[in-house]
Amino acid sequence: MLKQTYLLQDDSALKDKIFQKTKLRLSSAALPAKIIDAIVSMGFVLENPDYYISYPYLFKDAFAVDDETLDLLSVAGFLYYRSTMAIDGVFDNKNSDGSFDQYIIANICQEQTIAILSRILGGNKVFWQSWTRRKLEYIKAYQIDFNPNNEIKTFDEFLQLADLKSAIGKISLDALNILSTPKTDRIVYQNLLDSHRYFYGAFQILDDLYDFEEDTISGQANVARTILFREYPNSIKYPLKEQKECIYTKGIADLLYDKALGFIDKSLVGIEKYNVPRWKSEIQSLHNTIVIHRSNVFGYLFHSKKKQINDYDKKEFTSQKDSIQSAKLYLERSFVNDNGWKDYLNGAGVSDVWVSYFVRFFYHEAFPDDRILENGDPHLSLKSESGKRPLLGYNKYWIPDADTTSFYILSRYIHDGVIENEVLEEWLGYQNRDGGFRTYNNDEQLYASLNDKSASDVSGWLSSHFCVSAVAFYAMCRLNLEIERKSALRGYLLNSITNGYYQSYWWCSPVYGLSFIVLSCSVENDKPLLEYSVDLIKDEFQKNPDLKENSFFSGLVLYALSKTPKKAKMAKDLCIMLKEQLINSQKKNGSWGPNLSLRIPSPSIINTTEVNNWSTGTIGTNIILEDFNCLFSTAVSMAALESTI
């Protein structure tokens, strides 16, 4: 994550205004409607970064320029960008008729651009000198880009090329700096140019990864291909598809994503205090896009690999101890050195931080004296972008959440006897006024991480969640916290149960949250909560007999009931059934699962009963996910069998 989160700006109204003014400008020039439609087509806008429609507004507040002038500069900037893309189309298009159309568009757009700039800046010598310089920069970029003899050998050279290719955008900064009245400090202008350079360095890396095949076919410079051929010379003989696979499997993409994120960090150096919210919004958006691309790509690769090698055939074990030992070995084999455990795949990638602390907690509940890594912390070696302990979230790139923090606290405090005060304070900050715990704590961080400028409602993910609150209450009980917040949390849980609002927000069955309440009551003698929860769990299995087939929910319930011997007798038949089901459903490799247990509601959904259709998948919201690596199901099932031996 960036050191500071910047709110994404939805400038759709501004862009629509500039779009309409561009149409009016072209209409006033008495151009044919067909030409106008071709220039300001929505197809072109959708295929290119939309900020080019109103580029000068990205830096508006750093310069003293009136809105009318900004509108004219924006129209000129859009037309010049359109002309440049049309010229590119002339070189790329092998169809002579199509090339001629692009030539006409380029010519008209350039004429209109110069006419508008002449009206605004007149004969300002400084501006027209910079105009010529930027045009030459773009030409130089084109020459380097398509000259096979001009190999980019260093990242400094790559950054220079990216800067040359972004020359069109720098014209806006040049014009704003000249037109600003009173004059803006030149250091502001220079710092924004530096920020612009690093931004486009990151942008170009992402573009090169995305366009690897297209660039290779056209002979265009591509940093990913350069590194691939340099590090693996024989790969030049590989088929194009295999070359692209090597980019991701040989660590080249990971290196480039790291470099891109480094450029993003540098793009903010020197401008943190400047009031340029739209520009910072674009930096935040690009940062998010890089993180999402990286998480999705490597999440998909890990997911595909595990799905191919996992053995889901059932096996009969000779004893319960044999079953437990086999599960233990599966979890230990699944531990990825320096990366902890990994499971679940969604739009944020594969989870590592959340899953590692969840699994570690249940692993050490079953085997309290075992240590998988030195000091028992699976993430002492898993570093975040800053090199420090990763944020306590879904994975090391995602924003913090209450549930991951709860399992971190359970894992660290219960088994290591330590917990940082700062973590405890942050965790308590997730509590809402109604006493419950929300999953996320910061709406600006959430909007930024979703990377959707049109997102306008995240109230669902900021509301109190029964399942998250139940885990938090269990952590408070295990920590023996006697604070007012704990009483408020208990009140929220009891009120939710008695009023029938005990659905698990993030899980497909209410038995998830109810199980953690039962576990809480195993620590503290809370008869009302215990009786309500056990009765509701029994009801759920009676209403839904197929629920026992889900080893994650079965294992969690059996583990919870096993910790309350007196009450477990009242659910004796259920415990016997669940234990038998777990022993009979274990796989040859020692795992249980995968199970469809986790779900992701839309951020605006407060009550999950509002969702009419849940689909199975990995992308988007209102979806149900499986623990494809079987870690969640195996961890709770192993702990359940160990506690009932």
Commentary on this structure:
The protein contains 28 helices and five strands. The protein has helices spanning 12-28, 33-39, 42-47, 67-92, 96-121, 125-145, 155-165, 167-179, 186-210, 212-218, 223-231, 240-249, 252-267, 277-309, 320-334, 353-366, 402-416, 421-428, 443-450, 459-462, 466-478, 484-498, 511-523, 527-543, 551-562, 565-570, 572-585, 631-643; strands at residues 343-346, 349-351, 596-600, 615-616, 623-626. It folds into two domains: 12-296, Orthogonal Bundle (Farnesyl Diphosphate Synthase), CATH 1.10.600.10; 311-643, Glycosyltransferase. The radius of gyration is 29 Å and the shape is elongated. Mean pLDDT is 88; it is low at 378-387. The protein is mostly helical. It has a three-stranded mixed sheet with strand order 3-5-4, with no helix packed on it. It has a two-stranded antiparallel sheet with strand order 1-2.
Query: Per CATH, which architecture of the largest domain?
Result: Alpha/alpha barrel
Low-confidence runs: 378-387
Query: What average pLDDT do the residues reach?
Result: 88
- Please provide the count of β strands: 5
Q: How many structural domains?
A: 2
Bulk shape? elongated
Largest sheet: 3 strands, mixed
Beta percentage is under 5%
Which CATH top level class of the largest domain fits?
Answer: Mainly Alpha
Termini gap: 45 Å
With strands numbered from the N-terminus, the spatial order across the biggest sheet is 3-5-4
> What fraction, in percent, of the residue positions are helical?
55-70%
The name CATH uses for the topology of the largest domain is Glycosyltransferase
Structural class: mainly alpha
Separate helix tally: 28
Q: What Rg do the Cα atoms give?
A: 29 Å
Organism: Allomuricauda ruestringensis (strain DSM 13258 / CIP 107369 / LMG 19739 / B1) (Muricauda ruestringensis)
Protein name: Squalene cyclase C-terminal domain-containing protein
